[in-house]
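Notebook, student rotation project (T.W.).
Task set for the rotation: take a protein with a known small-molecule partner, predict the structure of the complex, and write up what can be learned from the model alone. Partner molecule chosen: fe (ii) ion. Sequence and SMILES entered below by T.W., checked by me.
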Amino acid sequence: MGIEGAAPKPPAPRGPYSAALLRQLTEPPGPAVGLPRPPSAQILGDDLQLALYVCYELHYRGFDEVDPDWEWNPALLAFRAELEQAFLSALRAATTPAPLAEQLAALLTEPADGSGPSHFLRKSGERWQAREYLAQRSLYHLKEADPQAWAIPRLHGPAQAAFAAIEFDEYGDGHGDRAHAKLFADMMRDFGLDPGYGRYLDLASAEALAVVNLMSLFGLHRGLRGALVGQFAGVEITSSPGSARLADALESLGAGAAGTRFYREHVEADAVHEQLVRRGVIAELLRQEPGLEPDIAFGLAASTLLEERLAAHMVSNWSRGQSSLRGPLPAEVAGR
Ligand SMILES: [Fe+2]
Ligand SMILES: [Fe+2]
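Predicted structure of the complex:
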């Protein structure tokens, strides 16, 4: 099954709250009396991040044998709102965003002694670590640009036009076989991974879930459109050099042409997107709505925090020769 496949199977629970939610979703939509009030304290852990992820996934592809009407069930939305409030509070408590201009300037200069996964993989990575990286990242990249697409009707005029131009590129410029999600699926196949949508959800760490949950949270709330633009800008501005390193790393780890195309494409595309997002999206949005500046700064800082958390999780495990996933990846399947 590729990225065009049917809805994935629901994941395995990771604790009492995700278990209660997943049990509830096997029933027809209703008052959802089986959903307990989630605590706020463990919001970044596996159980609550998975619960939030499952709630959001109902807005993307849903799950096999889960009634699509759960998407707008009021009881389920109330449960999700509690998770979201806890998530937002934790992020606000953990960030003290620098002024936007300062953060944007800092993104343009990479530290020479970078320590993220792209540096690790290029310097001393092994093929199993590259496969883990792709599996962790597949949660987002197999639906690349989808969480941000929700922001399009919440922007207007030139900011909307520039934002939509970037999204159009992400979706393949009118060619489905060039969509970034499709290029990612092709790369997974090249590394002997199953590109089925949601295939590695059970193996992905809480840190990987949080990165995707943040985009869904920002995308689905109009009141957080500034934060969504901040998150989007962070990705587009920093992606080009990291993508170049990843393409080189994957090539040295045995990638074929399909195994580097996704990152090579991002070296070029995101150099253009960086300009578009700064001058077209952020500058125009601030001209229309100057009051959004702190929200954009918050979205950028929160996204950076969660990305760094995921990066540290992977690199610290790999440095000890340990897996960053929650279980072993199946052996490579021939796919070229
Ligand atoms: Fe992309
Ligand atoms: Fe991009």
